[in-house]
């Protein structure tokens, strides 16, 4: 059985004040995995503050290498050292705004697992790719690069987030049936390599999820939770989204 998971991707947003609001007012009941991905500078505050509660903290990015003369970079080992347990890799903003290639995404996925972080691999097609009928092949390609570098067994300790680029930050959530269809496709694609791993791998949906759209999305059979951007910065809204998943 796949445990439901709801993750907050704060992107380059947030502040100490927002961290304090979450620490004071936000909790999760243990029936789902809740992961917060704040900017690096705020990870320690949240890790220490949530130490007694069942809330995990992850990092939004890691370097592909472990240490050395790489000014400005942070390694997966450092993230683990500070208490983080998850790492986002392949987010479309990293791919598109920072030029991360499929190859670099694969290296970062490996770096996370080598250090002991669970990677959350983001995949998703652009609007053009969807309109050209290429959504499934694009997503399959993004997963295949990782499969070819690490093998299907590595997905036993990874999460996939399907985030159609056209739905991120646009207010245009994918319809539940549209998202479900891609999630089922992703699971079928993994099944070709290993049915058990495919059955157990969590596939989250991301792209303009909010408290009004979450329940319908999470009710779909292959949607195991969400990766939430804009709506995750306000603890009441994020708590409502977490409550929308019940399995
Ligand atoms: P959004 O972002 O919820 O603001 O669309 C989701 C994401 O990019 O992870």
Topology of helices and strands:
Elements: E1 5-9, H1 16-25, E2 33-37, H2 43-49, E3 55-59, H3 76-81, E4 86-89, H4 92-97, H5 102-115, E5 118-123, H6 127-131, H7 135-150, E6 159-162, H8 176-191, H9 195-200, E7 202-206, H10 214-218, E8 225-228, H11 235-243
Bound molecules: 2-phosphoglycolic acid (PGA).
Could you walk me through the main structural features you see in this protein, from its secondary elements to its overall organization?
The structure is a single chain. The protein has helices at 16-25, 43-49, 76-81, 92-97, 102-115, 127-131, 135-150, 176-191, 195-200, 214-218, 235-243; strands spanning 5-9, 33-37, 55-59, 86-89, 118-123, 159-162, 202-206, 225-228. It has one domain: Aldolase class I (TIM Barrel, Alpha-Beta Barrel). Strands 1-2-3-4-5-6-7-8 form an 8-stranded parallel β-barrel, surrounded by 5 helices. It has 11 helices and 8 strands. With 247 residues, it is α/β, with parallel strands linked by helices. The radius of gyration is 17 Å and the shape is globular. Helix 5 (102-115) packs across helix 7 (135-150) and helix 7 (135-150) runs parallel beside helix 8 (176-191). The chain binds 2-phosphoglycolic acid (PGA). 2-phosphoglycolic acid is lined by residues 9, 163, 168-169, 206-209, 227-231. 2-phosphoglycolic acid (PGA) binds next to strand 8.
